[in-house]
Predict the structure of 8-amino-7-oxononanoate synthase.
Amino acid sequence: MARFDPIFQTALDHMADTHTRRVLRPVQHVGAATVIRDGRELVNFSSNDYLGLSHHPALAARAAEWLRLDGTGSGASRLVTGTSPRHMHVETRLAAFKGCEGAVILASGWQANASVLAALLRLAAGQGAPPLVFTDRLNHASLHQGCMAAGVRQIRFRHNDLDHLDSLLDRHAGNDRAMRVIVTESVFSMDGDRTDIARLAAIARRHGAFTYVDEAHATGVLGPQGRGLCAEYEIDLVMGTFSKALGGFGAYVAGSRALCDWLVNACSGFVFTTAPPPAVLGAMDAALELVPTLDEARARLARNAAHIRDVIQGCGLTSGPSTTQIIPIMMGEATRALAFAARLEACGVLATAIRPPTVPPNGSRIRLALSAAHTGSMIDRLATAITHAARESA
């Protein structure tokens, strides 16, 4: 035992006592919608692979081709020798997809939010007064980290309450020297609800505020051609990922050319990180080519999500404010969520119990994530499993 292990073990024991300790349970992915765990095949309703692209042959083929041609690694950060014509090509295609002047690829969504937002807020602090940063109280942990890294105080508005945001901006209207920054998500990862982006953009414009919107769970699924909820509105910086509906790995930010050029110089998560490798870029490129053609898959996904919400409500349970492919089954206590997840698994369905601190106290839930790769029989199995689990837990 190492000298400091008693400290770690005490913390682990406390997590176990409060039913919040996590353990790694490996699975073997079998296609886009099923996994094998402990020798059993389960239908996967916990993956963010919303379009089933992680196993699409077009992504695999381009990833393999670019790996064969360019090797397994990029060798350096983008500002040293890590930038290849492939990087520039993907960023150009990404900017066109998002309808922006420019785009910058980063290693992960967490890294993007934590480092891009920190850089932006530090710059804002140098404009004459500390920035006023208005954030949705349920923003992802990476967005909170970006604010903390910049040393700014968040002015938090009630979740998805744009009236409250508007009133907070009015309350701080007298501070003309401070840059105003609104930070939120277009689709929230735990509740599956969406922000009214049209109204958000109008509020920001009226108050002269910079808008930073995380589109990780909307990109590929929502908006025209899957371009996200921000696609038709004036949003200053849009962040998203390739690791969810786009079926690969990595993240991006998109915005004006000047903004992207500045981030290349000022964002630590870009400057000090090895560039994404060729195979990752190949999957990105193929996904960006494919996603605009998948309107039928997006429509089917929306229909299945509406059906499952009806099933949940028919069982006397609640799916919260969900209007997307992310559907919580609200449980409250962590022990109840864990037991419900175990009942679903016994029915052949993998649906993870989400517990604090990922969600607020007494906010434990089953988080369902539907995919266009789910067949009709898989959706029927989920509906039957939810009904059975609800009956057993009544």
